[in-house]
Amino acid sequence: MIKGTNASPGIALGKALVLEHNEIVIEKKTIDNIELEQKKLTDAINKSKEELTKVKEKALVELGAEKAEIFEAHLLVLQDPELVDSTLNKIKDEKINADYAFNEVKNMFVSMFESMDNEYMKERAADIKDVGNRVLRHILDIKFVDLSTLEDEVVLIAHDLTPSDTATMNKKKVLGFLTDIGGRTSHTAIMARTLETPAVVGLKNITETVKDGDYVIFNGETGEVIINPDENTINEYKDLKEKFEKEKKELESLKGQESKTLDGRHVELAGNIGTPNDVQGLINNDAEGVGLYRTEFLYMNRSEFPTEEEQYESYKAVLESMNPKPIVIRTLDIGGDKELSYLEMDKEMNPFLGYRAIRLCLDRQDIFKTQLRALLRASVHGNLRIMFPMISSLEELLSAKEILESVKSDLDKEGIDYSKNIEVGMMIEVPSAALISDILAKHVDFFSIGTNDLIQYTTAVDRMNEKIHNLYNQFNPAVLRLIKMVIDNGHKEGKWVGMCGEAAGDKRMIPILLGMGLDEFSMSPISILPARKLITSLKYEDMKPVAEKVVSMGTAKEIEEYMQNNFA
Known about the structure:
Number of strands: 16
Main location: cytoplasm
Mean pLDDT: 89
Helix content: 40-55%
Shape: globular
Number of helices: 22
Radius of gyration: 25 Å
Catalytic activity: L-histidyl-[protein] + phosphoenolpyruvate = N(pros)-phospho-L-histidyl-[protein] + pyruvate
Strand order of the largest sheet: 1-8-7-3-4-5-6-2
EC number: 2.7.3.9
Organism: Tepidibacter hydrothermalis
Low-confidence stretches: none
Strand content: 5-15%
Largest sheet: 8 strands, mixed
Domain PEP-utilising enzyme C-terminal: 249-538
């Protein structure tokens, strides 16, 4: 048995299809006919453009406008004169073959992006590799697996799945994904959860271990993978799959029911989204609202800031489709590991501690005001709640609110309508905000706790650093005490408190958070019904002492084991 990172729940059994993308072998050759080699390059680029245009159109229909933008970015790579002209010149100046020249130039750009410190820019290196390999296959006339025409059901095995892989595949024939690399927040993991397809990632060398046609079974919830199992094991996993499908079907009966404990405490179960297209997953899983709409995806994979009108249309689409359910939209949270290629930002030693989120917005009020105008205009189409990210002081909160009021005043002068009942809240992501939450609570309508960053800042652990990953733990007693403090302080001022970090959907955390009095839980769409099942089986009064007990424990391990043994 092999163990990887559980990326998307479900059991998959089937024959493996290993995506090797046929290894591309490049050899340096001296050539006589420069024009012929240059033509090979331009033909390959034109074919790649035609393919990517079709992929983009397919993605637009099946995945929505925001995900289709990824392929617009890929098309832009092919139009980059630095890439194309440099290769044409290299062929001419060095009298070498087109594939070798292009590969050299492509690798130079890949190395440049990979050497950058932040994760977002590193992802751009993957885009260039993806597009570049497509061009190379055309130059060398290498055939590759067309995932859109799969005829048999398969388990896809890949080093990693590219955006074009997931956008073009025939999803009815794909039983699940297994990849060498990636974590729970990788593109493959996010796509698997969006498609509700089982997946295990981070298996290190699964593409070398498995061969085409091997029989593979895996559990996307535990991360366990077995290759060519015996008959007994196959039957065991068939039973597990049947049980999983039965439980999934049973969860359907919870649709339309209140998320209420056995002793009558109601909590709100909402979902996290990145684009308007993600709303369908929330509707399918009966979410009671949107607890976090990450607006930064509107700004990424493009060459300039979205206009006020583009933003208005995106916010309006989400508000209308979920109306009258509440929609919490977070204002721009850029910086840290999320950069914009068209926004010049100085290189920082510690970008997570630097110029990001509300700090950037308070400094660049032109960007901030445009977003606030779009939000306010869209507010007439539904139940909008506005949330500010990364607030670390009362001064920042008051400044953000002041700018919001100035934008309202501008709209009033222009005679533009907006809702007068918008709740305004803030995220609790840093210890300083948690520690003065009694003061901050007087100035907001709600708090939403972002555990991903709160854990990072409280424990001084970079969540991207694999060497210290074991120290990044939501069960750390210090983190739990801060969460309890925020909930208590919010309630003292009569304000509701939610959570939109990964912990809100964890079955071992839900009883603790329920006992602490959390009012709203926001999570991945596929976690909503399992969370409702758990909450409706518990008593709020019974969970209060559980919460008290765990915050008195000394270690994360002790707390995690206690919750695993009693509630998982």
